[in-house]
Specification:
The chain is of the alpha+beta class. It is built from four helices and four strands. A hairpin with a 4-residue loop joins strand 3 (164-168) and strand 4 (173-177).
C-alpha cells in the first residue's frame, strides 16, 4: 500500500514537473510573441506617423504654393486694373483733345478718313451737330466736286459723338468717330497689357 502511494506521488510529481515546464515554455513563447506583436505594432505606428507627416508636409506645401499663386494673381489683377484705369483716362483725354482740335485740323482728318474709308456707290456721311454747322458746307462742296470715293452725301442726321465721321452704307456702317478710334486703340493696348503681365508672370 505504501509502495503504491509512493508510486502515485512520483507520478504526480512528474506530472507537476511536466506541467511547470510546459507552462514556462508557453509563457516564454507567449512573451516572445507579445514582444513581436508589440514591435510590429510600434513599427506600423511609426510608419503611419511618417506617412501622416509626409502627407501633412505635402498638403502644407500645396497650400503654400496655392497661396503664392493666388497672391500673384491678385497682384497681377490689381496692376492690370490700375493700368486699365490709366488707359481709360488717357483715351478719354485723347478724345477730348481731338474734339477740341481746330477746324482746319478736323477738316484735314475728315478728308483723310473719307478718302480712306469711303466706298463705291452711295453712302451718307454723319457728323455731330457742331462739326456739321462748322464744316458741313466745305465737305458738301468737296463731295459734289468728286474729291472722295463713291457718291457721298452729307446726312441731315447728327450723331451724338465728340467728333469724327460715321459712314452709313445702308446695311453697314463704318464708325470713324473719335470715341470709336480711341476704343479700338484702348482694346489693343489692353491686349498688350495682358500679354506683358502674363509674360512677366511666367518669367
Amino acid at each position: 500500500m505504501s509502495d503504491n502511494r509512493n508510486g502515485i506521488d512520483r507520478i504526480l510529481d512528474k506530472i507537476k514537473e511536466y506541467a511547470d515546464e510546459s507552462a514556462g515554455k508557453i509563457l516564454s513563447e507567449s512573451n516572445a510573441r507579445s514582444e513581436e506583436v508589440i514591435g510590429k505594432a510600434r513599427l506600423e505606428s511609426e510608419r503611419r506617423d511618417l506617412e501622416d507627416e509626409k502627407a501633412f508636409s505635402a498638403e502644407l506645401e500645396r497650400f503654400r504654393a496655392q497661396s503664392e499663386s493666388d497672391y500673384a494673381a491678385y497682384e497681377r489683377d490689381k496692376v492690370l486694373s490700375l493700368k486699365q484705369e490709366m488707359l481709360a483716362e488717357a483715351y478719354a483725354h485723347a478724345v477730348k483733345t481731338l474734339a477740341g482740335s481746330s477746324p482746319d485740323r478736323k477738316l484735314q482728318l475728315y478728308r483723310k478718313w473719307l478718302a480712306k474709308y469711303g466706298g463705291e456707290g452711295a453712302y451718307s456721311v454723319i457728323l455731330n451737330r457742331a462739326d456739321r454747322e462748322l464744316l458741313g458746307d466745305v465737305l458738301l462742296s468737296e463731295m459734289r466736286r468728286g474729291d472722295f470715293p463713291g457718291t457721298p452725301r452729307l446726312s441731315e442726321y447728327c450723331a451724338e459723338i465728340a467728333g469724327g465721321l460715321i459712314l452709313d452704307f445702308g446695311e453697314t456702317r463704318i464708325d470713324v468717330s473719335f470715341e470709336a478710334l480711341a476704343a479700338e486703340q484702348k482694346g489693343k493696348a489692353d491686349g498688350e497689357l495682358l500679354d506683358i503681365l502674363f509674360r512677366e508672370e511666367k518669367a
